[in-house]
Design a protein that fits this description.
CATH architecture of the largest domain: 3-Layer(aba) Sandwich
Helix content: 40-55%
Distance between the termini: 54 Å
Order of helices and strands: EHEHHEHEHEHEEHEHHHHH
CATH class of the largest domain: Alpha Beta
CATH topology of the largest domain: Rossmann fold
Number of helices: 12
Shape: globular
Largest sheet: 8 strands, mixed
CATH superfamily of the largest domain: NAD(P)-binding Rossmann-like Domain
Mean pLDDT: 94
Length: 296
């Protein structure tokens, strides 16, 4: 397995491409937008420069990594000769099903199809293909080049051979793969998202402010980042999407998104990616500037 195709040049996609390329794999990075590809490659270059500054890699390592990446706006050309395709598109079930139907038609019959979904059923995704045994979840953590964990999610029909192959491949990337079963949110988000949602409820109910909530969790629970700041980095739209998937899957009100989260997403306050979320990333990063206007 030497040629890896990655679909989506956004935060997760470019991080996955970076990680494979730095480990010596030929990466075919695919996005329908040339602008997104350019931004993704610029992000990879910037992150490699940071690693050079921290003396983790050399200039030669950086160039070798970049040389391992080629970009495509045509998915058919992009997946050509790929042994593994990793889909890292937006967390939208209809979009992912559409992509996997297309991949099943254009990829070689032996190609493994993986999704970086953080909540959507692998079994549901696999069902739209003629190769459910070769469909698997590879849920990388953000930032991908740094975070060690990869959740490996087996669908109902995912074969033992494919699971073993992907577990071993993850280890070759310097990651620690952990196998989990296919239930909404898997393990990481089934635990994380209710905590983030409860943190937003705590803010919504006026118990404490943004910085106070994050400080309690950082200093009291030894979390490296507070849950509201983490939500900003994940993307509030992504948090909302995951909670909706879990709520629909479990039919349990404990997964119902907080009204504050819903309103902020409707207003386009998505966190770091939009410049505003629970914190202000566009100016001086003043806590609560944005969130307060949605609390009634």
């Amino acid at each position: 397995m030497k040629n890896i195709a990655v679909i989506g040049a956004g935060t997760m996609g470019n991080g996955i491409a970076h990680t494979f390329a730095q480990s010596g794999y030929n990466v075919q990075l695919i996005d329908i937008s040339q602008d997104s590809l350019d931004k993704g490659l610029a992000t990879i270059t910037k992150n490699l420069d940071r690693m050079i500054a921290k003396e983790r890699i050399t200039e030669l390592d950086k160039q070798s990594t970049l040389d391992n990446i080629s970009s495509f706006t045509d998915i058919t050309q992009g997946v050509k000769n790929a042994s593994l395709v990793v889909e890292a598109a937006t967390e939208n079930v209809d979009l992912k099903l559409k992509i996997f139907k297309q991949l099943d038609e254009i990829c070689d019959a032996q190609t493994i199809l993986a999704t970086n979904t953080s909540s959507i059923s692998i079994t549901q995704i696999a069902a739209v293909t003629s190769r459910p045994g070769k469909v698997i979840g590879m849920h990388f953590m953000n930032p991908v080049p740094i975070m060690k964990l990869v959740e490996i999610i087996r669908g109902y029909d995912t074969s033992d051979d494919v699971t073993t192959t992907i577990m071993e491949l993850s280890k070759k990337l310097g990651k620690i793969p952990t196998e989990v079963n296919d239930y909404p949110g898997f393990v990481a988000n089934r635990i994380l998202m209710p905590m983030i949602n409860e943190s937003i409820e705590t803010l919504y109910n006026g118990v404490a402010g943004v910085s106070e909530i994050d400080t309690v969790m950082k200093l009291g629970m030894a979390h490296p980042m507070g849950p509201l700041q983490l939500a900003d980095f994940i993307g509030l739209d992504v948090c909302l999407s995951i909670l909706n998937v879990m709520y629909d899957g479990f039919k349990n009100p404990k997964y119902a998104p907080c009204p504050l989260l819903v309103n902020m997403v409707r207003a386009g306050k998505l966190g770091v990616k939009s410049g505003e979320g629970f914190y202000d990333y566009s100016e001086s990063r003043k806590a609560e500037k944005v969130a307060k206007q949605f609390i009634k």
